[in-house]
């Protein structure tokens, strides 16, 4: 995952020694960092989390978020990173550091996580597109290590075989845990002997997967594997997440059991808005951001709060506009908003007054919010 703008809350960085650097495919690479004994407490993490890496590219300091591929029990920070093009800052990250160099790496963060249930029989499926495989590797390694009764199915989409990142590691996991893990590769720009595995992972493909792969359940003759699915993990581009998340929901998986992580900016809602709101016009907005106070006016509430502030040119932090990343988290100090479904805030946080600007519809003539949470 790579965030595009800084967050209002500053991350805590430490210098970590680069222990390993490996090119995976033509445009992806892996980095592995040593965690010194004194910082082991700072770098405890959960599967599915990410770190921010701070580095120079063309004279400019970049802070980008990258999901970890390492599992907590491995005691290291390992990342998978994509170079989008020759001008990408990540190319300088790969070219500019060698094993033994120190790199500024933040403490782990993120909420693309699952509650561990080592004593339960569970079925968990994952969908990944391209470099979106990174947090799923962390999850799958962790679940295989800590939950002996859980079975997993991974559906991984790429354009071509040579673009599969971490294929050797994935195949080794599938071999080691053959009774509990099955991996299926899909290709959008490469012929396949079975047409099921040709094309993008989307709603149409999910229906075929349910009918042709997740159908007969050896553990229960009266139901299918799909019927037994407890959790769904999705990581990839926004369109893929939107299509698969809605397809899973429409095929019986509850939204609270569908977890997703974006690795690039996405400006649409994942789920359709199911509620109409009363029109409110001429809305006064006061907000604090980066220790500065701002005031503005919104014509009406037909567009959500974050999007309206961005249109007016305010530097509100965001990585998505879909309630996933939490970059636009703030506190509602005055007024009323309707917070739409989101993947980030807990029920306790919502009750404490926290909102996500990207998922907030203003319902009062005046609101006051604070983006400076710390």
Describe it:
With 374 residues, the protein is an alpha/beta fold. It folds into three domains: 13-106, Beta Barrel (Elongation Factor Tu (Ef-tu), domain 3), CATH 2.40.30.10; 123-262, Rossmann fold, CATH 3.40.50; 281-370, Ubiquitin-like (UB roll), CATH 3.10.20. Helices cover 18% and strands 31% of the residues. The protein has helices at 89-96, 133-146, 167-176, 203-212, 238-250, 305-311, 347-351, and strands at residues 13-25, 28-33, 50-57, 60-67, 77-82, 102-106, 123-129, 151-158, 181-187, 231-236, 258-262, 281-289, 292-300, 329-334, 337-339, 354-356, 360-362, 366-370. The two termini are 24 Å apart. The model is unreliable at 1-8 (pLDDT under 50).
The CATH class of the largest domain is Alpha Beta
**N-end to C-end Cα span:** 24 Å
- The percent of residues in helical segments reads 10-25%
* Order of strands across the main sheet: 4-3-6-1-2-5
Strand percentage: 25-35%
Number of strands: 18
Q: How big is the Rg? A: 21 Å
Overall domain count: 3
Mean pLDDT: 92
Instruction: Report the CATH topology name of the largest domain.
Output: Rossmann fold
